[in-house]
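Exercise 7b. Backbone tokens:
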């Protein structure tokens, strides 16, 4: 028995090390994962913000620092920005010098573990959309001024049949100014650049199911807001009637002032010369005349997933997290 004295103390010491190690695994790893999650949020936000600034012409890498700090509990993060790949912005975030106050009071410090450095990375891709889904109307690329996409762009009347010069190549009988598209769901058409076969929905009036969309547009404008719709743009049209099709080349964003897609109710809104901002040249009040009135504007869409390439530059860009 004399030789067994002190065994309990050794056992307790060994168990304390085991318990401290288990505590470090349970508590510290949780803190590290929480910090990394915050750093990932900062990297994602930084990549999107810097990419947007670059697309708008100012390219401000310093935006990443503020977003890295604001997304971490200790506001002590670093961010580096890589612009070496064309059309991409990569932001790498990390705890500052491995001494983040959030990670210095770790359980593992009791067994002399050193400070922890955690990092995260995100890449945002910039491109012109090659596919889309929205209001089932396609516009011609050679009938209207698509190059003035800016907040002060010229206000235009986009007409159903603007004249003989915009009716497409010889033999094309579907409208060359614009064309309704076959719907993939009520008042919505899924389109893709280079498809060479976006089917037309012939007729002077819009496809069915657009009442709610037009009412929503109207309510937004009357409430002081803006309606910006992305329309697919075609360069050529072939065929006639419901056998016609459009070749989509890109997407343009149109800030809508008014429209006339039919007669009465939500199908016509602010389309006469006496309406706010309208003139006789912009008005669309004739019985069978159809038009949409507004201006092409620059627009940057932010989302997630791979940028689908293929579209030409019509003032509308996509910025997406790609990794």
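Sequence design result:
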């Amino acid at each position: 028995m004399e030789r067994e004295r002190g065994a309990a103390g050794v056992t307790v010491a060994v168990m304390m090390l085991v318990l401290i190690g288990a505590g470090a695994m349970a508590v510290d790893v949780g803190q590290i994962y929480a910090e990394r999650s915050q750093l990932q949020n900062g990297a994602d936000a930084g990549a999107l913000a810097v990419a947007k600034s670059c697309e708008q012409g100012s390219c401000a890498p310093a935006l990443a620092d503020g977003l890295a700090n604001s997304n971490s509990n200790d506001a002590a993060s670093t961010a580096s920005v890589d612009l070496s790949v064309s059309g991409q912005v990569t932001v790498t975030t990390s705890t500052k010098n491995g001494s983040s106050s959030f990670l210095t009071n770790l359980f593992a410090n009791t067994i002399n573990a050193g400070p922890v450095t955690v990092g995260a990375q995100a890449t945002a891709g910039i491109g012109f959309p090659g596919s889309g889904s929205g209001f089932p109307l396609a516009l011609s690329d050679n009938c209207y001024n698509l190059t003035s996409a800016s907040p002060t762009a010229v206000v235009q009347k986009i007409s159903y049949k603007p004249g003989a010069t915009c009716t497409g190549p010889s033999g094309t009988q579907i409208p060359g100014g614009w064309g309704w598209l076959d719907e993939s769901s009520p008042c919505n058409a899924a389109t893709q650049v280079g498809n060479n076969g976006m089917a037309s929905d012939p007729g002077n009036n819009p496809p069915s199911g657009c009442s709610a969309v037009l009412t929503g547009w109207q309510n937004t404008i009357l409430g002081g807001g803006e309606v910006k719709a992305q329309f697919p743009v075609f360069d050529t049209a072939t065929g006639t009637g419901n056998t016609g099709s459009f070749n989509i080349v890109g997407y343009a964003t149109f800030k809508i002032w008014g429209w006339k897609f039919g007669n009465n109710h939500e199908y016509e809104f602010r389309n006469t010369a006496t309406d706010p901002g309208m003139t006789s040249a912009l008005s669309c009040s004739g019985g069978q005349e159809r038009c949409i009135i507004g201006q092409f504007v620059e627009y940057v869409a932010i989302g997630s997933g791979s940028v689908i390439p293929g579209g030409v530059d019509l003032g509308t860009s996509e910025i997406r997290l790609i990794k």
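Instructor comment: The radius of gyration is 29 Å. The chain is about 25% helix and 30% strand.
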